[in-house]
Amino acid sequence: EIVLTQSPGTLSLSPGERATLSCRASQSVSSSYLAWYQQKPGQAPRLLIYVASSRATGIPDRFSGSGSGTDFTLTISRLEPEDFAVYYCQQYGSTPITFGQGTRLEIK
Amino acid sequence: EVQLVESGGGLVQPGRSLRISCSASGFPFGDHAMGWFRQAPGKGPEWVGFIRSKAHGGTAEYDASVKGRFTISRDDSKSIAYLQMNSLKTEDTAVYYCSRDGDFGFDFWGQGTLVTVSS
User: Fold this and answer.
1) Which of A3, A11, A16, B31 is surrounded by the most beta carbons within 10 Å?
2) Exposed, middle or buried, B10 (CB in 10 Å: 0-12/13-18/19+)?
3) For residues B13-37, b (16+ Cβ closer than 10 Å) or e, as one string?
4) Do B45 and A37 touch (CB under 8 A)?
5) CA–CA dist B12, B17 (Å, integer)
6) Of residues A33, A46, A98, nearest to B47 (C-beta)
7) With an 8 Å Cβ cutoff, are B105 and A47 in contact?
8) Phi, psi of B69 (to 5 degrees)
9) Looking at residue A31, what is its pLDDT?
10) B111 interface with A at CB cutoff 8 Å
């Protein structure tokens, strides 16, 4: 099983600032099948990034993903008020499909 | 517009069974694998399993925590995926989501249905 470790656990920033979220895998993620999701209270996860760096349909270009192998990053270039939420990484290159424990992005 | 709607959740006693459904619309259902995920209160999402499209064998894979107790099936003529849950445990309490496996990941999710396992 691939264990995903996200850091930091909580990130406190202000609107307009840049956010950098990390996801480290316990072993290499096959074909960079690494996704990032945003989740707000009472809502389903929303796909932001797939295959490590491709934005899903309708996702603003302030969201970007990078990385390969075992180290991946989600960057939000300029935070908007609606970006404050919990973010999860997920690997789907091998079963069991696994998620990181999440990073809470909160308003400073 | 892609839509996924889960139904059938509710309160069930430990050891009993429950079947939840996922009705899909807005895309060629039979062409896609479908996944089930769950999220316990205050926790992160967790993979339950998925079922491949008929073109890819129609077989299912499961997380170890549910293997042998849960079964995923699909009815392509009705665009519905099912999750049959047997021998339910209190730790199965969660919101259950179905999701479409797009070309490169699980791209659309339903709103979820709450399953509470309690005596």
Assistant:
1) A11
2) exposed
3) eeeeebebbbbbeebebeebbbbbb
4) yes
5) 8
6) A98
7) yes
8) -110, -35
9) 81
10) yes
Give the pLDDT score at B58: 96
Look up tokens 């293997």; give the residue. Answer: B67
> Is the confidence at residue B104, as pLDDT, over 90?
no
- Which of B46, B104, B108 faces A51 most closely, judged by CB atoms? B104
Tokens found for residue A21? 């979220």
Q: Write the secondary structure of B45-82 as one string of H (helix), E (strand) and C (coil).
A: EEEEEEECCHHHCCCEEECCCCECCEEEEEECCCCEEE
Element (H, E) at B116: strand B113-117
Whether the CB-CB separation of A56 and A37 falls below 8 Å is answered with no
> Model confidence over A1-51: pLDDT tens digits?
999 999 999 999 999 999 999 999 999 998 889 999 999 999 999 999 999
Q: What is the pLDDT of residues B17-49, one digit of tens each?
A: 999 999 999 999 999 999 999 999 999 999 999
The two structure tokens encoding residue B103: 């070309």
Q: What share of chain B in percent tops pLDDT 90?
A: 97
Chain A residue numbers with beta carbons less than 8 Å from the beta carbon of B111 are: 43-44
Would the CB atoms of A95 and B61 count as touching at under 8 Å?
Answer: yes
Phi-psi region of B92 (alpha: psi -120 to 50; beta: other; left: phi over 0): alpha
